[in-house]
Amino acid sequence: MLSNREVILSENHPEVLKGLALFILENNEKLAKENAKLRKLEAESKLRELELDYQRTILRDLVFGHGVEKSRASSGRNRRIKPNEQLLLHAQSLAPAPTEEERKNLERSVVSHEMTGAELVTVAKEMGLDRQEQSAFSEIKGLTDDAVEITVIERRYISELHKLKKYRYHPAPDENLEKEVIVTAERTDKLFSGAGYSIDFALSVVRDKYEYHKPLERQTREMQRLGLNVGTKTLYNMAEAVSVHMEPTVSLVLQDIFKAGLAVECDETPWFIQSNHDDDGQMWTASNQAGTYYRFEPTRSGKVIAEILKDYAGPVMADGYGGYNRLTKDKKIDLAGCWAHARRKFIELEDVYPEDVGWVLDRIGELSSIEYEAKNYEELQKLRHEKSRPLAEKIRGYLVEMKTRHLPESALIKKAVNYTLKRWDCLTKFLDDARIPLTNNGAERAMRHAVMGRKNFNGSQTINGADTASVLYTIIESCKKVEVDPTTFMKEIILRNNRDEPSISPLQYAKQIRTPPAENQ
C-alpha cells in the first residue's frame, strides 16, 4: 500500500494536485491560528502569573506594611539629600534656627583625678626610684592629660515642699480695720490650682508619650522603678491639663498656616478608639512650613477638611482620596495633585513592566531633581516653566501611547496610567504656582509622627483622649517645623497663661527669640 507521500509524488493530474495543495494550505493556516492562539494563551498565562505575584505583594504590604518606596533602578529615582545640600524650598524653615556652630554645646563639667600618697609610693617602687615616699612628688600646676567623656545623669523624682510665706499688714494709726489683714505669697508656676505635680513633671509625661511615643503604662513602670507610684489616669489628667493650656495656641497655628503664603498640604489616617462606647475615627492634618494642625473627627467625609479650610484661600495639596474633591466646590481653593502618589502606582508595577515603568519613574525623578535647582521661588517658577513643563508634556504623551499599546491586555497598567491621566490637571497645577510643592510628602511626614504614636499605644481610650492627642501633636509638630524645643515652648505658654498674657504660636515664638535685640526694640 502506497504512503501519502508516494501517492502525491505519483499523481500528475492538475486538478488533483490543486486540490491537494489547497488542502495543505488550509491545514497550514489552521495550524498557524492554533499556534498563535497557544502563544497568546502562554503570554496571558505569564501575565496572569505576574499580576498574581503583584497582588500578593500588595496584600503582603497591606497586612505587614512596607518600607521605603524604592525603585529597583539606581538612576537617581531615589534621591537623597547630600551633606550641606540646600533643602527644597517647600521644606525650608520660615524661622531658621542658629547653625551648628552657633548652638550651645552640651553642659560641661570638670572632674579632676588625683593620685593618693599610696599610689605615688607604688609608682616610685615600680620605677625603682631612690625616694619611695609621697613627699618626693609635687603636683605640676596647670598640666593635665585631658579626655572628654559623655555621661548621663538618670532622671530622679523629688518631693518638694513649697512654703508660701505669709505677711501681716500693719495699719496706719488712724486706720480702722474690722479684722487683721494677712496675705500669702502666690505661685504662678503651677499647672493648675491644687495640682500635686509640677509643670516640668507634666511636660515630661507629654514629651515621653506624644513626642517619643512611650505609652503611659510604660511610663508608670519606669516611675515605679525610680520610687514613684502613680497611675496612668493621673498621668493622662496631667497631659489633658497641658492640652487645655495649649488650645488657644492651636488656633494660632492654623492661622499661621493659612497666612504663610504657601500651599496647605492635607492628609488623614485612621485613629482607633479603645472605648466600646465610641467609634473609631480619623486624624486629619493640614500643614506647611508654618506649622502642622491636627484634628480628630469620627468620619472620613470630605466635610471635615472643608470645615478646617473654610477660612482659607489658596492652593491645597492632597492625595487622590475622593473626599478632597469637595474642596473643588470652594472657589477660593485650588486643589493640586501629588506626584508621589502617582509614582507609587508605577513603583508597584516595575517588576511587571520594567521598560515602560522605568521610563516613567526616571522622568518623574527628573521632575523632582529640577525642584532642587531653585534658590528662591522666582527661580523655581522659571525652572518649572522652562524645564518641568516640557518634561510633563513628554510624560503625558508617553502615558497616552502606553495606554493604547498595553490595553486591553492588563488592568494593572490601565489602573496606573488612568490614575495619572485622570488627575493630570491637578498634577500639573504646580507648573503655574510656585507655592505648590511637587508632592504631598510634607503632610505625610507630619502624619507619620501621629501614626507612630498610634501604633505604640493603639490610638486613644476615648474621643476626649483623641482630642487631647490632636492638640499636643499640633504643638509638638509645629515646634519641630520652626526648630523650637516643644517642651520649652509649652512651658512658656503655660507660664504666659498663668500671668494672663496672650498666647503665641511656635512660629511667632521662634521669630521672637531669634530676632536681634536691636531689631526687637
Structure overview:
The mean pLDDT is 86. α4 crosses α6 (232-259), α8 runs antiparallel to α9 and α14 (463-481) packs across α15. This protein is 50% helix and 7% strand. It has 521 residues and is an alpha/beta fold. Among the domains are: 157-186 and 198-336 and 440-476, no CATH class; 339-432, no CATH class. The radius of gyration is 36 Å and the shape is elongated. The strands form two sheets. It has a five-stranded mixed sheet with strand order 5-4-3-6-7, sandwiched between helices. Strands 1-2 form a two-stranded antiparallel sheet. The protein is built from 17 helices and seven strands.
Question: Biggest β-sheet: count, sense, barrel?
Answer: 5 strands, mixed
Strand and helix order: HHHEEHHHEEEHEEHHHHHHHHHH
Cα separation of the termini: 121 Å
By secondary-structure content and strand pairing, the structural class works out as alpha/beta
Give the CA-based shape: elongated
Strand content: 5-15%
Kindly state the mean pLDDT as a whole number? Answer: 86
Strand order of the largest sheet: 5-4-3-6-7
Q: What is the total tally of β strands? A: 7
Q: Return residue spans where pLDDT drops below 50 for at least 5 consecutive residues.
A: none
Total count of helical runs of at least 4 residues: 17
Rg over CA atoms, rounded to whole Å, is 36 Å
Q: Assign a percent range to the helix content.
A: 40-55%
What would you say about this model in short?
With 521 residues, the protein is α/β, with parallel strands linked by helices. It has helices at residues 4-10, 14-64, 117-127, 199-211, 216-225, 232-259, 302-308, 339-347, 354-371, 377-406, 411-422, 424-427, 441-457, 463-481, 486-498, 506-514, 517-520; strands at residues 166-168, 182-184, 264-271, 281-288, 291-297, 314-317, 333-336. Among the domains are: 157-186 and 198-336 and 440-476, no CATH class; 339-432, no CATH class.
